[in-house]
Amino acid sequence: MYIENIKLSNFRNYTKQEVNFDKNINIFYGNNAQGKTNIIEAIYLCAIGKSYRTSKEKEVIKINEEYSKIEVNYSKSDRNGKVKFEVSDKKMISLNEIKLKKVSEILGNINIVLFNPDDINIFKDGPAKRRRILDVMISQLRPAYVYNLNMYTKTLEQRNNYLKQIKYDNKSEEMLEIWEQKLADYAENVYLYRSEFVEKIKSKIVNIHKKITNDKEQVKIEYISDFIDKTEFIKLLEKNRKVDIIKGFTGKGIHRDDLKLYINDKEIGIYGSQGQHRSSILSIKLSELEIIKDETDENPILLLDDFMSELDKVRRENFLEDVKDTQIIITCTDKLEIKNEKKKIFYVENRNC
Q1: Which of 18, 79, 215, 265 has its CA 20 to 30 A from that of 123?
Q2: Mind listing the pLDDT tens digit for each residue in 302-315?
């Protein structure tokens, strides 16, 4: 699949802008703070329905304007499509001019794999970022996953609220059983989705990482979860009730899940060099790309935000050879020299657009 063009209105620093893409490589270069990453973000919004840069979507509206609109036209092997993303007082997403009732309904129409500079630190930071990356990966292929994850989160909030009522209002602990049963039901579904996807990553990442590191490193990824099965999960919640009541929140559950990655049997979050962190996230993202291709029979769109500058010329060419037949959208500060003749190059300069 590939994106044909994108139209922006009052989006970030753009007043009006239309970009027509090449099916292969598209390079956006220029100084920092000119609007290159805004192109990547706009595509991401139309694919995922949420920004990866902010949780406050009104921030994408150009200063002193009342609304923002993005239109993306894309092509797949069996159909063409159009996604429209609008933000004013509220958010609205349309697919082929039909307004969607839920954000999750947009998932799977435009499949993407995103590299952004913050990804390099995901094994240095807390587990929340690792869960988020995993959640985005899964949601593109399993839209029902989003429903189960959202329901788990809502049920978790209800249990947490009731824990506070027990602590401060002397409510009965027996009512916790209702929330714990529901929590276990949704936890099982989320756990199964995550386990399935991590197994798919495991089946890809070893050979990918060997190739990236010239067979110098062995990589291993591990999914860490409190969940074993529903029965054990409910027992775990019951065991921790007293502590949860004192703290006012649920301390155990799939909202604490984590991913750990090891290079030559050493945990990268503790012992990894900056280069190992970079090659590891690259291996994970390339694994995701292959999984999406396997399951959809379409190459996803590869979004590389300020990533290619991290690679020397040889590794850059090897990387692009590995992802040939994939539409790639690259942002960088300097004009990249790439052998592939099938490319478009855009110089980006903020002139109040």
Answers
A1: 215
A2: 999 987 766 667 66
